[in-house]
Amino acid sequence: MYSGIRIGPVVKRDVMKASTMLEHENQYATILAFDVKVERDAQELADNLGVKVFQADIIYHLFDKFMAYREEIKQRKRDEFKSIAVFPCKLKILPQFVFNSRDPIVMGVIVEAGIVKEGTPITVPSKEVSECFAPVQ
């Protein structure tokens, strides 16, 4: 990874250095400019390359902007992968609420740990083998 510190206005060279992070992790291809100017050609290059430039005269505002950007990226990743993510859970079957013991199995459960969402695959572990049932609907 690359990081750098420089005093003075943000120039094209700074943007080129920051753009090396685009190969690894986009969220780190950023420039935090505290109480300095960003030259117009450097801003244009940053926009073209996809480098994010944050500029503020108050350090706390700069920090807040950067943290909001990181949170936005995290949320985008969550949204992107939520359809394929499997949330682990532990369920307890309520015997008095077993309505259908054949396909489709319909029963009441208590969630003892984790999160159950629609589409979560359910398995019943035993000493010999783990049997996988259909996803939760």
From TrEMBL:
Boundaries of every Elongation factor Tu-type domain copy: 88-123
Top-rank lineage group of the source organism: Eukaryota
Residue span, Translation initiation factor IF- domain: 6-66
Gene Ontology cellular-component terms listed: mitochondrion
Entry-linked Pfam families: GTP_EFTU_D4, IF-2
Gene Ontology molecular function: any one: translation initiation factor activity
Protein name per its UniProtKB record: IF-2 domain-containing protein
UniProt keyword annotations, A-Z: GTP-binding, Nucleotide-binding
PANTHER family per UniProt: EUKARYOTIC TRANSLATION INITIATION FACTOR 5B, TRANSLATION INITIATION FACTOR IF-2-RELATED
Gene3D superfamilies found in the cross-reference section: Translation factors (2.40.30.10), Translation initiation factor IF- 2, domain 3 (3.40.50.10050)
The UniProt record lists the keyword Cytoplasm: no
Organism expressing this protein natively: Anopheles minimus
